[in-house]
UniProtKB/TrEMBL annotation:
It comes from Pseudorhizobium endolithicum. Residues 1-21 form the signal peptide. InterPro entries: CE4, Glyco_hydro/deAcase_b/a-brl. Keywords: Signal. This is Polysaccharide deacetylase. The keyword Signal applies. PANTHER family: CHITIN DEACETYLASE-LIKE 4 (PTHR45985:SF3), PTHR45985.
Length: 327
């Protein structure tokens, strides 16, 4: 199905299928919610519990340093960095890492998608193809051997390594997306990238042999100024990156209003998939998680809305494109 979608893009036949505002009965409004880092085990549990009742499937962009115990940090070396370095740290203990591995596997079993957010969360804006490839290979190698490395070899699920080898999605830390990134992704078997930013919701486009999703700019706040649809960017705008829990309800309302308006604009219009990104951090007292949960609770039960993973979105978009073009 993905091959047919690539072919459709190459032939320029996808646009009729992907611009279905005049035929809303033929396409669902897709909502893609993703999490970067996927570290905090309490938020793993919260997100999985919420998903079970809210008819939503998430994409988790996992940083693999978070399944390495601090005592084993020296086993990882990022490009142009000393061994044992990571911008987001490591698991404090092997027990913590084992708990995280359990969440990763259970989320996979529950229909969520696990994708790559590299290992050390370094800015690869100036990296070569070889640098990116090395980091991508570290991700698969470390994640493949993570159960054994954390004293749980006998608990490793039977299909764990097959699951790791089949991870198809990638988001670069800091949304750094040089041309070398896309080339490396293609060579390392990734099907899609989610690292770019677009002026508004757009359909994925081909870049260097992979499909590129862009986090959209959406209007936010009293003046409707554009902002990336991501919690960190809201955190910076609302409180200059400084926690201000006393205004958490206010920030939640602003985020929710922006998310809901962006959703309604697509739902009532072109029905281009809407992407919203979050982190496993309760910024401003959890304001942005609560805003996301409100939106999901309100819209994801509708028959003509699909709150899906990136992989599922590609399959659905590919199906529409192939049906329209007759492929």
């Amino acid at each position: 199905m993905l091959y047919r979608f690539f072919l459709c893009l190459a032939l320029g036949l996808c646009l009729p299928a992907l611009s279905l505002a005049s035929e809303p009965d033929r396409t669902r409004q897709l909502l893609l919610i993703s999490f970067d880092g996927a570290g905090d085990n309490a938020l793993w549990q919260r997100s999985r519990n919420f998903a079970r009742t809210a008819q939503v499937r998430f994409t988790y962009f996992l940083s693999c340093s978070l399944v390495i115990a601090r005592e084993d940090a020296g086993l990882y070396k990022g490009p142009h960095h000393k061994a044992g370095r990571s911008n987001i740290g490591f698991a404090q203990t092997r027990e913590e890492a084992r708990t995280r591995l359990f969440h990763v596997w259970q989320a996979h079993q529950e229909g969520h998608e696990i994708a790559s957010h590299t290992c050390g969360h370094f800015d690869g804006a100036d990296w070569s193809v070889s640098d990116w490839k090395a980091e991508m290979q570290s991700f698969r190698s470390i994640l493949s051997g993570a159960w054994a490395a954390n004293d749980a070899a006998t608990e490793e699920p039977e299909d764990w390594r097959k699951f790791v080898a089949g991870i198809e999605g990638f988001r670069a830390p800091y949304l750094s997306a040089p041309a070398s990134l896309f080339e490396a992704e293609r060579r390392e078997g990734f099907v899609y990238d989610a690292s770019t930013v677009t002026k508004g919701p757009l359909h994925p486009s081909e870049k260097g042999g992979v499909l590129a999703f862009g986090l959209p700019l959406i209007p936010e706040g009293p003046k409707g100024r554009p902002i990336i649809a991501m919690d960190y960017n809201l955190f910076i705008r609302h409180s200059a990156g400084v926690e201000n829990p006393s205004r958490s309800a206010e920030f939640e309302e602003r985020a929710y209003a922006a998310f809901r308006a962006a959703f309604d604009r697509q739902y009532e219009g072109d029905r281009i998939p809407l992407q919203i990104g979050l982190h496993f951090v309760r910024m401003n007292g959890g304001a942005y998680w609560r805003a996301m949960e409100r939106l999901v609770t309100e819209v994801c039960g509708r028959q003509d809305v699909g709150c899906v993973t990136y992989r599922e979105a590609l399959q659905e978009l590919g199906s529409h494109a192939a049906d329209s073009s007759g492929l």
